[in-house]
User: What shape does this take?
Amino acid sequence: MTASSSSFSSSASSSASSATAFEHSPARRAALRGLLAASLAGAAAAWLAGCASPSPPAPPPVPGLTPAQKAVLHNLNFTESPDADWNLDLGARMAFDVDASSITPETAEALARIARVLLSVGINRLTVEGHADNDGTEPYNQRLSERRAEVVAETLAANGFELANITRRGYGSNRPVTSNETGIGRMQNRRAVLIVPSL
Assistant: This one.
């Protein structure tokens, strides 16, 4: 063997020994531990992401009238009742004649304006109540009050409301707003009431 061959063999042996020493060195073990920890952390994060609960859906909008709608109702002289519905008693504006369910052109125009304003703010459902004084029999007054509710509903429908969205109710003489002992009292009880539901 030549000197150069001997030198090469010695160098290779020395490199192999160094590699073997590194594999078993504390630095090698620390590096491996670091790689393992990073790998485990990544796997845990991925697993947690997959198991995480989805975000809850947004809550539905709270039903009810908007502030703008309430302002319009207030401007039309509707009043809020204890059950949060909004009522407009038309007795002061359109008292019916005795034994009648027809309305005057002035009343029709007032109802047309109310319909236009309500629809302009998205109020498209309401209830119409008809009422009577205590003249006549109760069965007759019941039918009369129903006709009064119907004619008001038809006038609103002629000005944009869907008739199917208007609930009509007659109460005969069972819900007077004042005494029927006087002519003025009976006139005030021959009336219709508009009710806008709060929901």
